[in-house]
Design goal:
Blueprint: E1 2-4, H1 7-14, H2 21-34, E2 46-51, H3 57-64, E3 80-83, E4 87-93, E5 99-105, H4 112-122
Parallel strand pairs: 2-5
Antiparallel strand pairs: 1-2, 3-4, 4-5
């Protein structure tokens, strides 16, 4: 699980060679697009959470701030979802001034309920483990 709420955490993630390059590129793109209020801390405008294989529903819900694993989910639901292949991107509007972007790994060990819903909205079957 990664939770990025400040520019230092984003920089550390973008420069960490152990993190999937595709994920780093997606995070970098979204930060570049959404971090346009430079006089405010990043976390007051947008926050990023990365759901990784093996993360439990409790860990996911704690990091996001509300349940998103659909067997326990409450509103708000995501505003939109994009399928990037190895990663799903879920965008939430938390208030007029704050957004949340959640990246979910398309991996067999990702929370099955959350992954099932991402795959269903994307209109594709689960990938086969190698």
């Amino acid at each position: 699980m990664l939770k990025l709420t400040d520019r230092a955490a984003v920089k550390a993630t973008l420069t960490d060679p152990t993190i999937d390059p595709e994920l780093r590129a997606l995070i970098g793109l979204r930060v570049w697009q959404l971090d346009d209020v430079r006089h405010q801390p990043l976390g007051e405008t947008v926050q990023f959470v990365v759901v990784q294989p093996g993360d439990t529903p409790d860990t996911i819900h704690e990091s996001v701030g509300f349940p998103i694993c659909w067997d326990q989910a409450d509103q708000p639901g995501w505003e939109w979802m994009e399928d990037h292949g190895a990663w799903f991107e879920l965008a939430y509007v938390l208030s007029d001034d704050l957004g949340l972007v959640v990246f979910v790994a398309d991996h067999p060990d990702t929370n099955p309920t959350l992954l099932f819903n991402c795959l269903g909205v994307a209109g594709r079957p689960a990938s086969n483990p190698s």
